[in-house]
Inverse folding.
């Protein structure tokens, strides 16, 4: 029992291309060298808040939660933003550095 003939790369490419293009490929005598330019690596995206921050759970009584949610809805903002505003006011009242000052020193 004889082995089936080995296919060449040119035969595989010719069978995968349309007939009109395959004819032009088979007429070429020499091999064509194609150089591929590698794209520069994509820059790494900046870390998201979820990646660089710590998570903390806050337990709120239902009326407190509802009022915070209603305020966020009325002001078209997020509850998280209002909670950070409240922390900023607490820091100011106690004489501590604000959130902007704390994050500014981390970026340096």
């Amino acid at each position: 029992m004889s082995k089936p003939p080995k296919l060449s790369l040119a035969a595989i490419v010719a069978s995968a291309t349309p007939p009109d293009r395959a004819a032009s490929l088979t007429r070429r005598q020499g091999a064509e060298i194609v150089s591929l330019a590698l794209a520069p690596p994509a820059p790494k995206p900046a870390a998201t808040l979820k990646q660089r921050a710590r998570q903390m759970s806050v337990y709120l009584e239902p009326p407190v939660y509802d009022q915070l949610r209603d305020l966020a809805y009325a002001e078209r903002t997020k509850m998280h933003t209002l909670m950070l505003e409240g922390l900023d006011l607490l820091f100011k009242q106690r004489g501590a550095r604000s959130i902007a000052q704390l994050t500014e020193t981390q970026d340096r």
